[in-house]
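Box 3.1 A note on notation
Throughout this textbook, protein chains are presented in two layers. The first layer is the amino acid sequence; the second is a token string describing backbone geometry. Keep the layers aligned when reading.
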Amino acid sequence: MSTPWSFEIEQKVLSSPEVGIGPYVEVAFYHKHSRSLLVTDAVIFVPRQPPECISKESLLASAKNGLAVKILSKGKAVPDEPVVDNSMNRQKGWERMVVQILFLDRSNLLEPNATFGQMS
């Protein structure tokens, strides 16, 4: 499988048969230039578009400027407007979901695109 970083970083997935609670999987990355080895069991792939299993209602609820957005808005004015069902708002909802779940910090949840782009 080719990855966008394969020219710079080699990766190997190491797995064993299931041992009780589930499969045991490790991923090793080798950064060629720095000759650094990273071994982890937490590798997350974030697709640019929301998976089909995420409901339209959930995406639109996350696109709404709720309490989390207001708290993390860094003092910016947060409009309290209804969310129209369109592809832009569904995408914003997906980006906010990802940023909140995987990288909840002082990120700009009003416009999550930049942080989401780094993560995906």
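The mean pLDDT is 79. The first strand starts at residue 9 and ends at 16.
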